[in-house]
Specification:
Layout lengths: L6 H15 L8 H37 L14 H5 L5 H15 L27 H12 L10 H19 L10 H11 L6 E4 L6 H12 L8 E6 L2 H13 L5 E5 L9 E2 L2 E2 L4 E4 L10 H5 L17 H10 L7 E7 L9 H10 L2 E7 L11 E7 L9 E7 L4 E3 L2 E3 L2 H13 L7 E5 H4 L24 H35 L1
Parallel strand pairs: 1-2, 1-6, 2-3, 6-7, 8-10
Antiparallel strand pairs: 4-5, 7-9, 8-9, 10-13, 11-12
């Protein structure tokens, strides 16, 4: 029997689980325990729902005869939620054993791949000092107060509640939460512009919680288009983020996906015949200007991801950029990437930017407003590329100054539907508008005046490019100090050599 849970009630219920953890674990670790239990409860409740539906349709004997075919996931005997609920001692061990058994039981019938491997993360469930039995029992009892079946909690609503929880946990932890969550309204804008179609493939090389992949699914659902045929691919370096991403896709009803936990620049997961696999759509929010990456290996990259050049050690943005471009299908592959504004103008990437512009895949650059990343005032830009630009857009780039298209309320900044619509319409019309957008030709961009700058202020009247972010300034200062020290040491050595030569003479 259905007992439909309203979205607001569901969000409150899920977030209340964090209260049980307070004082036992750090706020930044809430997600490590709440998300796996949520997923465990969900698949067990759906398993029971599937059993009940099969019995109602075919009778008990018919349901038994059908066996595993009635279930999306199998729950092995002794490892169901109700089994763990009866445990009073060593509760953490029971939880961990159930997770392991479920991961090992569910495999692809063709490839024998463990389809749930790693989905529960690797939290320290057996650490009784942090997670005493009584606390874990309370957490289990809290989740047991509601039945998270599909009838009670449809996939789209559970997915929304899940993403709400990701954001709340990010806020609670006091971190930027960008690692797990990119502002949903910005992702909605990126998706709206790329216009995903049924049956297309979509990829995110730094997928975090898989919010961008989910956005493409939601886009098709909202437009009453067939979404089940869309194939989603993601790679994520952080194991917990990868697990959260897998759970997010499963809880949204997406089964046609693959998420891999690995370093995208070091070990790209999706390859075909020695080349990067290519996709219809790529959405990404790569980590900004990271310095801890293997530049030397990139110089001889076996996948040809240095076709524009080798980025400086202190900034890997163009390494991710080239990876994404190499991952696009020819003649119509398209991407939307969130970048710091520095990629548009920095001197050290001049040659790469020049080759990029002449490649003629950059279609649009959008400057968005401040504070759209949680706990961070930085401004970012969205770079839209298309390997098959329409004839009337070839040799041109559209610049949009959308930094004022923003609403701030309750200490949060976001794009309203009217903002998204205005930006998307401007992109679709590909037209200039005073103080908002401008179409520039490659000839204009490469002129002596503009010198291959993609800074929005160069082309849109009234636009002002944001100053460098704190991260970029800190990096520049560090590099300057390092350079100054090197010059000083070299000068000292030179003086010593000269002085030594004079004495010897």
């Amino acid at each position: 029997m259905s007992n439909r849970i309203e979205l607001g009630e569901l969000e409150t219920f899920l977030y209340a689980s964090a209260d049980i953890l307070r004082g036992h674990v750090e706020a930044s670790d809430y997600k490590s325990y709440v998300f796996p239990l949520l997923f465990f409860k969900r698949i067990c409740d759906v398993y029971d729902e599937e059993t009940e539906n099969a019995i109602a349709q075919h009778g008990e004997e018919g349901a038994k005869f059908m066996g595993a075919t009635i279930h999306r996931f199998m729950i092995p005997d002794g490892h169901h939620w109700r089994d763990v609920r009866t445990v009073t001692e060593n509760v953490g061990i029971a939880i961990k054993n159930a997770f392991y058994a479920i991961e090992q039981t569910n495999e692809d019938s063709k490839t024998h791949e463990k389809i749930l491997e790693g989905v529960f993360g690797d939290a320290s469930w057996t650490n009784k000092a942090a997670l005493p039995d009584e606390m874990l029992k309370n957490l289990i009892e809290h989740f047991s107060t509601k039945t998270l079946s599909i009838a009670n909690c449809p996939e789209d609503e559970l997915g929304q509640a899940y993403e709400y929880l990701i954001k709340k946990f990010g806020d609670d932890s006091g971190h930027t939460s960008q690692e797990f969550y990119t502002n949903r309204t910005v992702v909605h804008l990126m998706t709206e512009i790329l216009n995903p179609q049924p049956g297309e493939t979509v990829y995110d090389p730094t997928c975090g919680s898989a919010g961008m992949l989910i956005s493409c699914i939601h886009y098709l659902r909202e437009n009453n288009a067939e979404w089940r045929g869309m194939k989603c691919y993601g790679q994520e370096i952080n194991p917990l983020s990868a697990a959260i991403g897998k759970m997010n896709l499963f809880l949204n009803g997406v089964l046609n996906f693959k998420i891999v936990n690995a370093d995208t620049l070091k070990y790209p997961a999706f390859t075909e015949a020695g080349q990067l696999q290519q996709f219809d759509i790529v959405l990404a929010n790569p980590p900004y200007s990271i310095s801890s990456w293997n530049r030397d290996a990139f110089e001889t990259d076996q996948y040809g991801r240095n076709f524009l050049g080798v980025p400086p050690q202190g900034k890997a943005d163009y390494a991710f950029f080239q990876h994404i471009l190499k991952s696009l299908k020819p003649n119509g592959g398209r991407c939307a990437i969130l970048f710091p504004h520095g990629v548009l103008t920095r001197d050290e990437e001049y040659d790469m930017r020049k080759r990029l512009i002449h490649l003629d895949w950059v279609e649009c650059i959008i400057g968005i407003g401040k504070n759209l990343f949680y706990n961070s005032p930085m401004e970012a830009c969205i770079v839209i590329c298309n390997t098959g630009k329409p004839k009337d857009r070839k040799g041109k780039i559209l610049f949009i100054n959308a930094k004022d298209e923003i609403t701030r309320k309750n200490a949060q900044s976001y794009l309203e539907d009217c903002h998204i619509q205005r930006i998307a319409d401007t992109y679709n019309n590909f037209a200039s508008e005073d103080c908002f957008s401008a179409v520039a030709t490659i000839e204009e961009i490469s002129s002596e005046k503009n010198d291959y700058s993609l800074g929005i202020s160069k082309y849109v009247t009234g636009a002002i490019d944001p100053p460098a972010s704190k991260e970029e300034l800190d990096l520049a200062i560090t590099q300057w100090l390092g350079g100054s020290t090197s010059i000083h040491d070299a000068y000292k050595r030179l003086n010593e050599m000269i002085s030594g030569g004079e004495q010897n003479g």
